[in-house]
Amino acid sequence: MTSRACTIGLDVGTTSVKAMGFDEHGRELVRASTDVPTVGDDRGAAEQDPTVVYTAVMDVLGRATVGLRAHGLTPTLLGFSAAMHSVIPVSDDGTPLGHALLWMDTRAGDAARALLSSPETPDLYARTGTPIHGMSPLCKLLWLRRQHADVFTAAAKFVSIKEWIWHRWFGEWQVDASIASATGLYNLRDGAWDAGALRLAGIGADRLSALVPTTYSRPVRAHSPLATVGIAPYSIANIGASDGVLANLGAGAISGDRMVITIGTSCAVRAGRATPFTDPASQSFCYVLDATHYIVGGPSNSGGVVLAWLARHILSTYGTANGPSKAGVANEDASSGAKNAIAALVAASERADPDDLLCLPYITGERAPIWREDASGIFVGLRLHHTAVDLMRAAIEGIIFNATVIASRLSAFEVAPREIVATGHVMDAQWIRQLTADAVGLPVRHLGPVDASATGAALLALLATNIWSPDDYRVFQAQLPAEVLQPTGASKYDNQLRRFRRLISALTGDLADIYLDR
């Protein structure tokens, strides 16, 4: 390793932006973060103002560099992680023609369902590795083309939040293969924009960014905005990858023997593979980490956003009755009061045992395992004796049960997983990790307060620039702090899981027909 190397890992997530500084051994030294707002409505919108996100990015980078200088270090390397599936229509000069549409924006659901009925769909999914769902930029483009034809026609390009930030820094429209592979427009095996997907979207490749590998890096020039926040000129910026695949890298889980379950705002179950893989039965995703590593798994909308909504809007006895909000469910945990209420409810619900109460946590629709943008949240078995704590416990169990179903449907493993690596703030509670171990039936490893995506961004930057070798990464993996919880034996959740699976079947059948009056 280069002595005294100093690296920043930047992660632009759905509800917050984080910048973390690491020494030459990959040890975290500083961390800066800030929340970013999401605008939503009752029609399924979930949008962010890219200029607000950019301001948050530059703020946390500036604070991280100040913190590193306090340690006598100057950052010379920047790695970049960002959430997937966002779309911003932009003009010739890069001016946004609207807000960024986020992964949880469900308005493209009708476009996705129409595409699912097309005979082209199986081959399209096999080529791109992106499930057909309203989350994907392909479906968002179909929706924009139909519902906002003026914006669709006027847009010079359609880019993600990450690409827009990179363009602000360097003046070039470039997208890493990882973010591209989550668009539904990228051919996994050809490593290029997919001609069939572009035809369906009604665009040419010239309206997308130029593709570059996740290892692509470039120097920071003196006139770059990065220099104004303390990133030294001639430092190196690595374009990086998506937050999901980098979470696996940061958690030391890029081979199939470890399965990562991340529960933050949303939820994902992921494992590594050496080759692309798609499974029509489970609609698992397959996204690029680098030229020889792919991450396969299932994404779920149902994570901490459910707990934040429940605490803030329903369980007002815990001091979070702030009234109805149109701020959007993705940012429900923005206030410190809401965060405190969630923490109090989660802690109290450890002692609850509402085995007669089940929650389908689909308040923002759902991706895996049911792939329905129009799904809704349901409590089943609710009675007078249930309390706020019981509802929170049932919601947490519903999130874990949902992740368990996703894990059980994955068929991508080259070897059977021997353990789960738990990441994301919901997994900080030990009893939730034990619940996960008992439900899935595998040991659960926890890395402590590690931000896996930002860490993965820094690690990829170190590997991409050859500051680290693969051997250095293996040393890092071996030194990760860990607490491992074993399953307690015969699962006490077998009956609840069985009922949960039956409810999922009902939600995709008769129950949906009743709710939607079809």
Task: Describe the fold and architecture.
The protein has 518 residues and is of the alpha+beta class. Among the domains are: 7-244, ATPase, nucleotide binding domain (Nucleotidyltransferase, domain 5), CATH 3.30.420; 304-405, Nucleotidyltransferase, domain 5. It contains 17 helices and 24 strands. The protein has a seven-stranded mixed beta sheet. The protein has a six-stranded mixed beta sheet with strand order 3-2-1-6-15-14, sandwiched between helices. A three-stranded antiparallel beta sheet has the order 4-5-8. A hairpin with a 4-residue loop joins strand 11 and strand 12. Helix 10 packs across helix 11 (336-349). It is globular and about 65 Å long.
List the helices and strands and how they pair.
Blueprint (H helix, E strand, L loop, with lengths): L6 E6 L3 E7 L5 E8 L3 E2 L5 E3 L1 H21 L6 E6 L5 E3 L9 E2 L7 H8 L4 H8 L8 H11 L1 H6 L2 E3 L1 H10 L3 E3 H4 L5 E2 L4 E2 L1 H7 L8 E3 L4 E3 L16 E7 H8 L7 E6 L3 E7 L11 E6 L2 E8 L3 H11 L21 H14 L8 E3 L17 E3 L7 H22 L9 E5 L6 H11 L3 E3 L5 H13 L5 H9 L4 E3 L8 H14 L2 H7 L2
Parallel strand pairs: 1-6, 6-15, 10-13, 16-22, 22-23
Antiparallel strand pairs: 1-2, 2-3, 4-5, 5-8, 7-9, 11-12, 14-15, 16-17, 17-19, 18-19, 20-21, 23-24
* CATH T-level fold name of the domain at 7-244: Nucleotidyltransferase, domain 5
- The count of DSSP E runs of length 2 or more, i.e. the number of strands, is 24
Global mean pLDDT: 90
Q: Please give the alpha-carbon distance between the first and last residues.
A: 62 Å
Shape: globular
Q: Summarize the amount of helix as a percent range.
A: 25-40%
Uncertain runs are 318-334
**What structural class do the secondary elements suggest?**
alpha+beta
Annotation field: number of helices:
17
